[in-house]
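Bug report (template v2)

What were you trying to do?
Predict the complex of my protein with glutamine.

What happened?
Run completed; filing so the output is reviewed.

Input:
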Amino acid sequence: MQWIVVTGGNLSGLGKGIVSGSIAKLLEPHKIVNVKCDGYLNVDPGTINPFEHGEVFVLEDGGEVDMDFGHYERFTNHTSKSSHNLTSGKIFDAVITKERKGEYLGRTVQIFPHVIDEIKRRLLSIVEEEKPDVMMVEIGGTIDDIEESWFVRSIRELSHDFPHRMTFCHLAYVPFLSGVDEVKTRLVQTSVESLLQKGIRPDVVICRAEKRMTAEAKEKIGRFCGISAEAVISDPQSETIYELPLIFEEEGLRKYLEKKLGLQTNPRLEEWKAMVERIKNKEQAVEVAICGKYTGLKDAYASIMESLVHAGAFHKVHVQWHFIDTTDICSHDDVKRKLQGMQGIIIPGGFGRRGTEGKIRVAQYARENDIPYLGLCLGLQIAVIEFARNVCGLAGANSTEFVEEGAMVEHPVIDILPGQRKVQQKGATMRLGTYTAKLMEGATVHRLYGRTEVSERHRHRYEVNPKYHALLQQQGMIFSGTSVDEDGTTLVEFMELPNNVFRGTQAHPEFKSRLIHPAPLFVGFVGDILRTSQK
Ligand code: GLN
């Protein structure tokens, strides 16, 4: 077994997750396990506002993990596990729990060795459990962050424990000064110096830059870092992130790693390449509104955007998305003005009351004007509230999530799941991970999936209130996918209207969409846009 460690220098946000995913892709068909170390003290990102670190990605096993897992899963075909995301919070929590239990009795508990040992123990137990060909560890942030230091130290120790089995790939930013038409390599040099001071010598230096590195720049960086020029790899700005494995292939990274790791790879890039060509072809475009409240940071909706890219590639059309903040939509005129020119509407997941009245107006506008609508989790709940108010005549319909605690809702068409009522703790307590739904034969959702049983990932506390199922259905809403909860209640998993373009799901199909296997609901949504726009 071999290890690849990905570190970042000088700035965060350089795209280490995309780099790690791309490397994993190139090493196919070997079994690669991607692990991410995050320095923050939250046990997992589930309690972090998406404004801080982007979306919370949800895994099959219900793990709420860093959004980089989205890249790992989208670039490869493997399924990650919650235990593959190490955070300082998880590590410290485990160490302190052990201390309270007396497992270190008599000793002073310290970062070194106890925290370091806990990190190493966890990494090695992943190896033990998964038996990968390559264990790929990405260290979050930059090499100089205090909160990453225990991860860096643990990795350094492991490189002593397993000599000749570790390959270090360091990603650093290389600015291009247009005035003098020159790349500046000084920042790479200082970040590599910093790595060397920590006892780590990079084997590969990946240069994030506007353009590809010239042979001359590679020579210079290589000399400084003590590696050959062939191990200096360009990571230039590209039209789509999916191009990166292809660029790395051209840059010779796979050949280099094959030699270094002693592996024979065969990533079969032809189909991937064809899809990348489709993404780059922007001849025909459709305009989609993503109406949420985290519109200030597009990473908050990363998986939705990627699912649109996948569905667009499927239909050979470019999907242009627009983020629309619903907080300041106060009237139907506001909706019309803000949604002018939009051919499809997505209401993504979300929490809390802010912006929900605006979303309900958006859903009404979509339904009344036959504009393709895709409601994801909260988006399904919004559609149900809108339908209850404006079609079923329940003016007081709402979600119990959207009122002050203890306040009455006249018609709680969306209510908390019974199992969630007694939950006090916030972290990892929602209805999380994969649940299977049965689809109604003949419904559009059934046609899109081509199956009667589907499993998608979930992350919610509220549901369509079973007391209103009959009324909603009598008025024409179709519950085209349902599941049965542990206590026997029927949960609405998919909803659609007979007009065929208005639908939603309580799940998050965006987490399972892949370039080669786009999520069926997104394929249907983009297909609807193309069909309705031609009319
Ligand atoms: N806030 C809603 C719930 O908890 C929707 C959650 C979501 O969109 N992920 O049910």
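What did the reviewer find?
The domain at 2-274 is CATH 3.40.50.300 (Rossmann fold). The longest helix spans residues 111-130.
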